[in-house]
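Reopening this ticket.

The earlier resolution said the output was attached, but the attachment link was broken on my side. Pasting everything inline this time so it's all in one place.
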Amino acid sequence: MNRPFRVLVTGAGSVYGLGIIRALKASVLPLEILAVDVNPYSLGLFIADKGFLAPQVASEESYYLFIEDLCKNYQIKAIFIGSGRELSFYAKKRKSLEKSTAAKVFVSSPAVIKICRDKWLTMGYLSRAGFPVPASMRYPEDMKGISPFLKSTGFPLIIKPRMGSGSEGVTLVKNKRQLVKNVTGRKNLIVQEYIAGEDQEFTVGICLDHQGKAISKIALKRYLQDGVSIAAVSDDYHEIADYCVGVAGTLSAYGALNIQLRLRDGKPVIFEINPRFSSSTGMRLLFGINEPEVLIRSEVLGQEMIPGRPETGLVLRQYTDYYFPLDRLKSMSEGQVP
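Inline output:
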């Protein structure tokens, strides 16, 4: 590849979008990065090579035409999705966009997105596939079975929305009074066994090609603050990564898959799967795993990719402030290309 080719990153202001952009900028490939977001104050719009304000994805027709025109006008070769809210849209429109623009869209099928977005469906899928999961029940649908559930699991318990990611809406309850307080008047919840051991929590990144083969893998012991990884350790966690490759293979996922788990008696117990890039994508880059580049090499350039082994070490996350001239903001607010 002798000349630069263009890739698109959506949701450029999210921690996921910024991680993707960082990885792409660190790539040895000659890339030109275009970024889109609905918010003119999104950092990714400023650090990418070109930034554009996009319509809301909820306005599907307008959003589709905007992305299609952008891909055609700039000859985009690959689309990376940085917003969880856009996953369902791109899952539905992937084939249509790839046909009309020739850009590869790195997103799993609607069926996989549905399973992974709903934590109850995730637990059911994993259990049927033979993978151990935390004991779980729905609220309010399964409330009649709460007594035997509590007798089996005891306290503490985790309460969280069936939909969502990170720590949003997640509550640890230590007794019946707290349980009742945190479920009353709510719906679409999952009540789940608490897997002890915060120092045994891992985030695992898997990238899969169009045949469902793992082309990248990394397991990191993570430390959280407000649901986001602030520190990560890479060590001899290859068995954990391989275990998650097996899980990913049964799902028939495509592109990036992020799996959250804790160890119980030394064995992985998965409690969440996100079919997207992770908030630790940038951290993984520092361990020598560039997931966006791996996907480009495999799916755009047709290179055979074998998962590399990450370097060992510790990565700490610290946020950084950026300065830009005011005219950059003015041009962005007016919807112009900076």
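Reporter confirms the inline version is readable. The first strand starts at residue 5 and ends at 10. The chain has a mean pLDDT of 93.
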